[in-house]
Amino acid sequence: MVAANRWFCLATQRSTVWQLWLQSKQHQLFWRNFSQILVRIRYNHYRIRITQCIITIIRRLATQPKLANVPKRKWKSVVGLEVHAQIASASKLFSGGGTSFGAPLNSSVAYFDASIPGTLPVLNRKCVESGIKTSLALGCRVNEVSMFDRKHYFYADLPNGYQITQQRAALANDGKMTFPVITPGKKVYYKTVTLLQLQLEQDSGKSLHDDYLKRSLVDLNRAGLPLMELVFAPDLETGEEAASLVKELMLILRRLQTCSCKMEEGALRVDANISIHQEGDPLGVRTEVKNIGSVRSISQAITYEINRQLETVANGGVITNETRNWDAENRRTVAMRDKEVLQDYRFMPEPNLPPLHVNLKPGSKSSEDLLSVAALSEEIPELPEDTRQRLLEQYNLNAETAIILVNEPILLDHFLNISRSLNELPNKVIYNFLINDLLTYCNKVNLDVEKCSISADDLKDILKYLNSEQINLQAARQLIELLHNNPKIKVNELIELHNLQQICSPEKIENLCQQAIANQSKAVQQYQKGKSKALFAIVGEVAKLSAQKANMKLVVQCLEKLLKPSKK
Amino acid sequence: MRRHLQWSIKKLTASYADGQLSPRRVTEQALEDALRLKTLNAFVRLTPEQAIQQAQVSEERYQRKQQSGSLDGVTIAIKDNFCTRDVHTTCASRMLQDFVPPYDATVCAKLKKAGAIILGKTNMDQFAMGAGTVDSLYGPTKNIWSEDLDQDNWRIAGGSSGGSASAVAAGLCYAAIGSDTGGSTRNPASYCGVVGLKPTYGLVSRHGLIPLVNSMDVPGIFARSVSDCVAVLNAVAGPDRLDSTTIRDPFTRLKLPEIGQIDLSTVRIGIPKEYHCQGLSAEVLETWSKVADLLECGGACVQQVSLPNTAASIFVYSILNQCEVASNMARYDGIEYGHRAEDERSTEQLYALSRAEGFNEVVKTRILTGNFLLLRKNYEHYFEKALRVRRLIAEDFVKVFEASDKEDHVDILLTPTTLTEAPLYKDFASLTNRDQCAVQDFCTQPANMAGIPAVSIPIRLSQAGLPLSLQLMSNSLNEQLLLTVASWIEGQVGFDSLENRQEYKASL
């Protein structure tokens, strides 16, 4: 294309049509046409002079409606999420089948899950409780009566030929979620999204296709697993907002213990509906992106899809209502096949399950047949946003720090734990150490901080030594690495073993400083001439000489003292 | 002549207890009879090994004087749409020809627990879709009352639980389990001259009953007397954790008063005028009015009532039936169980061929129609409207059973069960399945719409020597009164369920 571009410029420099084309601003369209013709030239051996060829194209373009004349309006992107969260429970939504992830194929299958004729669904009370708790935590109105429906479609891993879901009357509606949006390099802001509906439904099984032997196998372990489907209003604009929503949702569900939120196990699945429109226009045609496997992918997939749509429209293309798959490897969305036909799910009330009633009376208790929403609301723990507020108010943390700590539950635990038992330690030291040192180390070695084996007690010890100046920050950082690699050795032993004690004795410090002054005569001169920054070089020298173990506060004091008289 | 066949269950178990008869001997005789009367085609499968083994255990219990219940040692047959552990359950279809359930339906489990001996599985219309037991993979079931069993002149047993009705009528077993969705128990009971009970929806668990229409299906009971019927009901009724639609309250066993003790003076009987319908035979009509007179003479207050939405019932039934059928049949894809076609080129091909081969025309037609009716564009117009009319039909019953004005209120409705005596097979087979069901279910399916209990009891023989029966209906969970009145009528009319044709007698 670069070569073609050069040709083109040469050939059309003096052409008046060139200006015309520039106005039309249909570069992409031009290049598509142009490259097509180039291909024709190559394959069909047309002996047409390039210039002429170009002129033809430009003429053709000039006769098309000019996009440039339409007043330029800003494009807006609209994103809505549908989240399927697997309810953490010991048995399935409608059967006694087990739910453990990674069980041997087809081993967690009750007769009902395999649709053995004559079996009937029996609603799992635990799942309803979890659904209600989640609804309450997300500010939903729990419906006094909800119902189950059959959604029909044929698929090999859907043994009944229908999925039992809640279409007409869901468990809960009209929730609201406010969450911080974290965009790298931008200021954190809060966004509120409406939760239209929370419904209970069963999962399908899994088909495994063996291309080599040309056969398909079905694993029904997943068939019938309990899911909460959360349908959010299209209130979002970017991939980051979507990822932040999901991140917050995961924090809430984990607090409630209603979902493990392990995306890698399929316990939380996110589908995104994405459209673009120009300001003032109605919403555009949307595409649905499925198969998003991680929080990071949510942001990437949505950003990709928004850009793809913008580009398609800019190229004069049309967005079609389709389902696309996120291809994490190649980082792009790909249209799914076999989805062109509009499905008619032939919804029908599930006749084997009576309507689900709940008790909405304040102060009521749950009975054998009727769950009390009021009683369940008392089981709801502190939610992430409440924790952030508490950190702000009780611990005087700033908003960013509070968000980071709450986003990493293990860091929050450490923080609260250490802060409680080491009263004398300023909170700032604790969270700085956790965020800047522990989290940074984990990120460096690509370790999920949740899986880091360093205990709160160990961290407490490090901070204790740090605070009493027995070790310095350098040593503290080193200890993180040492502890991670030697989980069985205690902090004080590691300090001994690796000789990490801070050098504090005035004689030793002075000794080191003298040596450094001797080594860094140039810096000393500069410093004495009034260039105060030159002190850093001398301090650095001390650090080097002491193998990073000198107490820097004392070193600076000592250096200033040593260098002062000669200044006079 | 094996006179013990005519005994009541109570008398039978009493004679087991005093050693006069042995469960093992009775079971062996029943199995012999079943083979001898193979021409009826009542059973699709006998389970002699299990039956004799169960009889043996029962006998030992009697010897130890530790009977397990009121049905200990009583021979019973089960319709082939109830799952029986390790015994084929086919729904008389090719689709489930090789299906062996890994579990017992709750009804079967409860019967076994009560000590009943299960002789085998009985014939039916494919997936219970029919009113004649003529659409079975195993061929039609014949009515024991037929003038001629061998020639082309035999009578149908009715359906879809024709096999169960036929087996009880022929004395092959003391009771049988059927299912009733629109009359599938009462219809064959009526033709075969036995008692056929459809309990209140939710009184007996459907767990293990392969569904036709979930919201209407009820396990039904066949017996030769009302008291036998009560004995079986007492064994199988009650809440079941495995069926969420069963009534939660504990079931109180029914106990009917002695016939002499029954007082009809407080009972109000309603005769719904809409049941006097087109196609009602003169003989059935006559029987109907005679029994009404009988009740009045017995002291009951008999009055005409109106159930204005009755005529709509058959259409509503047809729509709801086909929609649920389309949904319930979706599981038969040949993947997990059931018939699987050879064509495995693609999943769709496999589905299409498996289903094309596995289902008969009746099933296929209902699936197609049902799916059409459930399409988004049709749902409101057909399915939702049908649900609304269904509520109206149910309200009709509520109005007569729960009327605040004492004058308008009735306790029991008396109606025909079927419009005629059992038709000849050749006449019946000439009709389409839709017409067969629409005509024959007219009086029976409203009870399924409303979920109320209904019982068919034989009254007398027609001129052709065929049983004529009537139906009683009551408000939900009022089986006690329903069966009390039924037993009073039974006592008055003195119908002998085993007094049927010569062929049978000669065969013994």
TrEMBL record, chain A:
Q: Where in the cell is it found?
A: Mitochondrion
Residues of the Asn/Gln amidotransferase domain: 413-563
> Which reaction is this enzyme known to catalyze?
L-glutamyl-tRNA(Gln) + L-glutamine + ATP + H2O = L-glutaminyl-tRNA(Gln) + L-glutamate + ADP + phosphate + H(+)
Q: Does the keyword Nucleotide-binding apply?
A: yes
| Enzyme class per UniProt | ligase
The record's InterPro entries line, in alphabetical order, gives:
Asn/Gln-tRNA_amidoTrfase_suB/E, Asn/Gln-tRNA_Trfase_suB/E_cat, Asn/Gln_amidotransferase, Asn/Gln_tRNA_amidoTrase-B-like, GatB, GatB_Yqey_C_2, Gln_synth/guanido_kin_cat_dom
SUPFAM superfamilies reported in the protein's UniProt record: GatB/YqeY motif, Glutamine synthetase/guanido kinase
Q: Does the keyword Transferase apply?
A: no
Instruction: Give the main location.
Output: mitochondrion
NCBIfam families, alphabetically?
A: gatB, PRK05477.1-2, PRK05477.1-4
Q: How does it assemble?
A: Subunit of the heterotrimeric GatCAB amidotransferase (AdT) complex, composed of A, B and C subunits.
Q: Which family does it belong to?
A: Belongs to the GatB/GatE family. GatB subfamily.
Tell me, in a sentence or two, what this protein's role is. Allows the formation of correctly charged Gln-tRNA(Gln) through the transamidation of misacylated Glu-tRNA(Gln) in the mitochondria. The reaction takes place in the presence of glutamine and ATP through an activated gamma-phospho-Glu-tRNA(Gln).
Name of the protein this chain belongs to: Glutamyl-tRNA(Gln) amidotransferase subunit B, mitochondrial
Q: Which organism is it from?
A: Drosophila rhopaloa (Fruit fly)
TrEMBL record, chain B:
**What are the EC numbers?**
6.3.5.7
| TM regions (residue ranges) | none
Q: Which reaction does it catalyse?
A: L-glutamyl-tRNA(Gln) + L-glutamine + ATP + H2O = L-glutaminyl-tRNA(Gln) + L-glutamate + ADP + phosphate + H(+)
Q: Which UniProt keywords apply?
A: ATP-binding, Ligase, Mitochondrion, Nucleotide-binding, Protein biosynthesis
Into which EC class is this enzyme placed?
ligase
Q: Which GO terms describe its biological process?
A: glutaminyl-tRNAGln biosynthesis via transamidation; mitochondrial translation
Q: Name one Pfam family in it.
A: Amidase
Q: Where is the active site?
A: 79, 160, 184
Subcellular location per UniProt equals:
Mitochondrion
Please give the function described in this protein's UniProt entry. Allows the formation of correctly charged Gln-tRNA(Gln) through the transamidation of misacylated Glu-tRNA(Gln) in the mitochondria. The reaction takes place in the presence of glutamine and ATP through an activated gamma-phospho-Glu-tRNA(Gln).
Oligomeric and partner information? Subunit of the heterotrimeric GatCAB amidotransferase (AdT) complex, composed of A, B and C subunits.
What protein family is recorded? Belongs to the amidase family. GatA subfamily.
Q: What is this protein called?
A: Glutamyl-tRNA(Gln) amidotransferase subunit A, mitochondrial
Organism whose genome encodes this protein:
Drosophila rhopaloa
Q: Which gene encodes it?
A: LOC108048786
